[in-house]
Amino acid sequence: MARKPLTSPRKYASQERSRATVDALIEATARILVREGFDKASTNRIAEQAGVSIGSLYQYFPSKEALVAAVIDRHHEELMQVVRGALADVAALPMKQGLRRLITAAVEAHRVDPKLHRVLAEQIPRTGRLEHVETFSRENYALFRKYLEEHRDEVRAPDLELAAFVCVTSIEALTHNAVLHHADRLDDGAMAHLVDEATRLVLRYLQ
Amino acid sequence: MARKPLTSPRKYASQERSRATVDALIEATARILVREGFDKASTNRIAEQAGVSIGSLYQYFPSKEALVAAVIDRHHEELMQVVRGALADVAALPMKQGLRRLITAAVEAHRVDPKLHRVLAEQIPRTGRLEHVETFSRENYALFRKYLEEHRDEVRAPDLELAAFVCVTSIEALTHNAVLHHADRLDDGAMAHLVDEATRLVLRYLQ
DNA sequence: GCAGAATACGAGCGATCGCTCACATTGCCT
DNA sequence: AGGCAATGTGAGCGATCGCTCGTATTCTGC
């Protein structure tokens, strides 16, 4: 199966044991990113934390960058799970309730692993994996646009593409800023308040 | 004047020559950040690009971090110049025109040096100088809140602090995303369109 | 014009980084 | 049981990093 002479690292782990190794490496990377930051996340350190030799690391990840990209992908998949679920839930609701629920979901998504989310948001550009984020954003735009189309009767906007951009960007920025930069001032009351305001913002804009 | 034995670097350059050195270093740092990214911006490389010895660099900046912080401060000062100017211009205008002008100013601010702005936005967290950004954000919130207070008769919001957070965050995210991530699709027409939408968004929210 | 302060220089230190490779161990298949 | 593929190991290489320090040059005040 494997043809290459082990120089360019194998990508696929077929046995149970190696899958555990890959998982441990990704998990260790996430841990170190959260606890010590990007600069401390050297490949040697990650391997050590994972309880795996540095050689094994390079069997499965061609570079440090690839490791971080794997963490990003895993995290984004978790986020999209939340978003897709929420969109399915609210498909039939009127927009007022639907938007409120969607914005609540956005907050929840940011609370899945806020510290990791923050580190990734800050460090992703360095990985050269900006495409990943672009893809992620694009899927968000597309999903929300579809939502708007399904509620076209309640929306006065002529350009749904633009409207989706405005809504998604605003909601993401509000929840991101609130959860990641003002977590201190954000008890449950303030949080409900914020969801109210954000809902009001996009609802009035769309109608 | 200088007491320390040259170990902890001097902060103040008193002669003309040394001020030029400091400027060259900051300018070189900005250039390298824009052209080659954070990782390539080593202190040796910065000194070389500035036409200055590495020793001189450490006379004026105690660390690489301090150098980047200086670039950040300079850039933020330029941005705030634009923002403060716009706020002064629109103080007497009714909100509808005023907000439009302010949002246009936000776009202009992002266009001062978009590439540098992007690199800084992405890399700032690494410098440990997050406080700088926080201060910057806070000044923005405060200025806009003051603006809202002066137009209290046109604003229905009960909590101006929260309203300022919502507006500033949304405007900043919209202009930031548009200018830095969708510059391709952003001719003058699309730009005017975006300003329209953003104005509508915050105006309806506030009234 | 001269002394001392201010400024500039750059070889090079110690640390760390990403990563390779020669070799050892484990698991699968017949 | 034995052979080969899959997986695991870690010492260490070459590069680069941030930064120091002893020395050379330039400027200022008298």
Descriptive account of the structure:
Two copies of one chain form a homodimer. The first copy, chain A, is mostly helical. Helices cover 73% and strands 0% of the residues of chain A. Chain A has nine helices and no strands. Chain A has helices spanning 16-36, 43-50, 54-60, 64-90, 95-111, 114-123, 130-150, 160-181, 188-206. Chain A is elongated. Chain A starts with 15 loop residues before the first helix and ends with a helix. The interface between A and B is medium-sized, with 29 and 29 residues. Chain B binds a DNA duplex (30 and 30 nucleotides) through residues 1-2, 6-7, 10, 13-15, 17-18, 21, 42-44, 47, 52-59, 63-64.
Q: How many H/I helices of chain A?
A: 9
SSE topology string of chain A? HHHHHHHHH
Could you describe the largest sheet of chain A, including whether it forms a barrel?
Answer: none
Helix content of chain A: over 70%
Shape of chain A: elongated
- Radius of gyration of chain A, in Å, reads 20 Å
Low-confidence stretches of chain A: 1-8
Ends of chain A: how far apart? 58 Å
Could you tell me the mean pLDDT of chain A?
90
Structural class computed from helices and strand pairing of chain A:
mainly alpha
The most extensive interface, with participating residues per chain, is: A-B, 29 and 29 residues
The count of DSSP E runs of length 2 or more, i.e. the number of strands of chain A, is: 0
Multimerization state? homodimer
Strand content of chain A: under 5%
